[in-house]
Amino acid sequence: MVFLKANMETQKTTSKTSLLNKMLMKAWRERWTDCQWGINIKTVLPRGVSGDVYNLADCILQQAVVGSGANQLVLSYLRHSLCSHLISHAAVLKRISKYDGLDKPHCVAALLEFLESIIGGVTCYGKSEESMIVNSVTSLVFWLMQVYVQAVRMSSGAGEASSAFDWGSITRCVGNVLDSVVTSQFLMGILYLGKQEDAELFGKISKKYSEIVGLAGTKVPTIDEAFRKVALIELNHLDMIELEPKSVEAITYCLQPLLAVEVLLNPSSDTQVYVAQMLMIQRLKGYSTPRLYSELIRACLISLNNVSGPNRESMWCAFTFIKLPHILKQLNTLSKDYDEKLDYSPDVIEALEMLLEDAPVLDFMDTKCVCNTVECFMTELLKQHLVTEKQISMFASRRESITSSLQKLEINNQQPSIVKFVIRAEPPLAGILKTLSTDYNKVQEALLSMLCQVLSGNSFELILSVATVEGKLKTFVSRLIKCNECSKQVPGETGKAALTRAALFDVSFLMLTFIVQTFGSDVVLDEGGDSFFEKWVRECMVERNKCKSPMNMVQQCDQTKVDELLLHLHSPDSYKVPSLKWHEVCNNIPGVLYHVLLAWENGQSPTDVKNILDNMKVKLCAYSVCAASWLCSYLQIVCADDLLKPMNMVQQFLTAIAPEEMAQQENFKERLGLTFQIIRKMQHDFHPAGNPKMRMALTHNLVSANPLTEHFGDVWKGVQERGWLPVDTAQTLESLMQSCGPLWLVTKLVQEIFACKHISDMTRVMDIAFAIMHLDIELCTVALLSELLPMYLLNKLQSAELVEPHSTIVARLAVYAILSTLENPAKVRKKRSRTADTEDAGDGVGPPSKARKLNPDLIAGDSCSSDMPPETVISREPPATVAEPLATCFQNLLKMFATFVTTDEFSPKVHFIFQFLVLLVQCGRDRVKPLLRLLPVGFVQNLLKIIVTDDFTPGLILRLYDLQTSRQGAVADLCLLRNIQLRKESIRL
Description:
This protein has 51 helices and two strands. A two-stranded antiparallel ribbon has the order 1-2. Helix 16 (310-334) crosses helix 21, helix 33 runs antiparallel to helix 34 (644-652) and helix 42 (777-793) runs parallel beside helix 46 (886-900). The two termini are 53 Å apart. The longest helix has 29 residues, at 127-155. By secondary structure, it is mostly helical.
């Protein structure tokens, strides 16, 4: 039945086409005018039916070029049919592109002249025309190329055949038509869609262009250039409104705060994480490569100059002088101008030249670090082959006189250089890792001496800082765990060997506890580890944001062993406990302390309690740490009236030990110093008291007598005055976010944007706010998109209205946050922090240059990337999908946007939506394709009907669609825009 119906339709169409051909012949014989043609043709075509259905354009053109010359009367019928919308431009262009009689120059010339007259008004009406226009325009361009090649060959040939006709006129006509195509953003947009839709046809165009380039003869350079534009068309050739400032901002405000947050939260992140972020910033801000390098170095120096505390100072020093050169090396390798034959980077040299212009920063750094900062930094760059020795000498000499003068002015100019200390910590770290990888039973004494030496002064902090930035922290931890396991008590071992083993067990336990306390167990420990230390951390160690029940710890103790320990600690000389090993004592300390605490509360004398605790802490320092950890957990569950006794017990573990007791154990003083550090941090983390400055130095917790809103205001005032984010302030902001949630923090940051009066101030605040949101970029972005922006759009906030100029700044903040979340989801970061590391990141990967040759889109890790598996790489390709929860909240935001563009009313909300979409495609480019797939059907078309300014361009429309999946929607919107523009032009006429 369907077949019969289709057959009848075909017969009907054929019959109509035959009638049209007969009418056309009659019109030519009777010399109808075009008006007569228009009147009579309507007797054949049904009302409202396009002539394309009956191939009217084919019929007319066949008759127009049937002879050696074109029939101008018939062509006038074609023009009239086109103007009265009896046929479409798409059908006419398609039919002309099929004409293969290139040996008939008069016909070709007539067709080109006809094209000249209509090409400026090409458009589409209706779905059927839209489905044809892309192929028609693409085919026409290919036909123009064929005509041009023919004309050039004929005009450069010899004989009567070439001189009988002026082929140069055809060349000129081709140039005129082609110029109309190239200057029409609509036609170029349609042509770009043709490139996406028909790769085979566009391949022919590219091949024909190569033929044109190789032509010998009388060519026109302007036409060749026009053909180059159509043959090599790219999306960036199509114009769109630029909302970013034309000139790159003079000062960068987002890089330093971003680094301050990242190094605070993720100090052990591998090099590639920072490289990916820097490339993201470069895309957002449009920085040149030297400018990016310069700003990156400057940001690190500012942070180092203003950081306080030995731990943070050594960390930032290691990051700046050890990690940063590796980051610059990878960035340089990924640069489009990278030349592996050079032994230096021209971009790095240019960046250093820019840095020298910022004399105040370098002056402060030279004074603080007691060295020529530029020279020290370039010495590290030399190891990465980014500079040469000659360049180091040249740059160092330019700063030498200033550095010497600054150091002479300093009263304490004899202080050692922190930079040199940190750099010197690299070889000891390598030595420690090498020693830890050998047979522990053979090097116990040497290993103990080495580890205890590390605990003297601030050497341990320096070693940890270097290990962290080099990506070797987990290697260090895993080998210390192995050392701790191999140092467990051996039954029957006595004398010097037993004392050495005990001290090695103790010092490795203390170092591991300090590392976990500093960086968090999630970062440095593998999930599900079965060693004694890993189990103790998982079940007993008090940790921030990880609640553990102290009573569960008590219940897990072996009551028999607890009783033995109590007897031994109460009277050490009378009761020996040879059956209990050191790690068993650590596991049963919670039970001991709970009994001691109950006995004290039930009348036991404080002296007896003190004696028990004193006897515990002189055995091994690990016992004191285990005891303090359980007591700090217990402090979190008891009421205020019961805090005093457990707090006093914690304090007892911080009291001094008699010299004669310390002399009984080797290296006890160094171990005791680290023990006190660990217990004090536990004490201040989980029950802050005493000096507020000391609290903030030792704890991540927020302690403030003022309302948190006022506290934020005080903190923000300092940030705004400086223009950069101190690390201490970054930690306070993180505590505020932990206390109040990401929505509260983002709301406060956006309010600061609305508080600004000048656009320059708004932009600065927006950049800093964007960086601060990286405290948890995913949660902050979701809060901004799913809660804060809807409240502004629905006028639920009385404090501010979403109007210009604040509207564009807030839209930019939202776009920046989306793009950062899109490329760096939190779950990837979490997974990365748990990956097993290797000692040397180069294992099995090869040098970066070789990896780049094998696959230019990927770059392998370096020596500072060993916490990331070798197969994890930076990709230039955009992410394939949008991860949750970003996908859902972005889709919900678009649905809300759609409710505001259903009418023809232009409002500040519609303006915000338009600015948001422009910034999204402008900053995100190809990387936002997964987001564009979430646009509701018809959304862009509705917005197009409201935004009647010239800001809506074909280039913008094409960027708003994922052209792999939504080409037809893009064609429809291009045609709608074209018709709106033509209507506006006709009104002006």
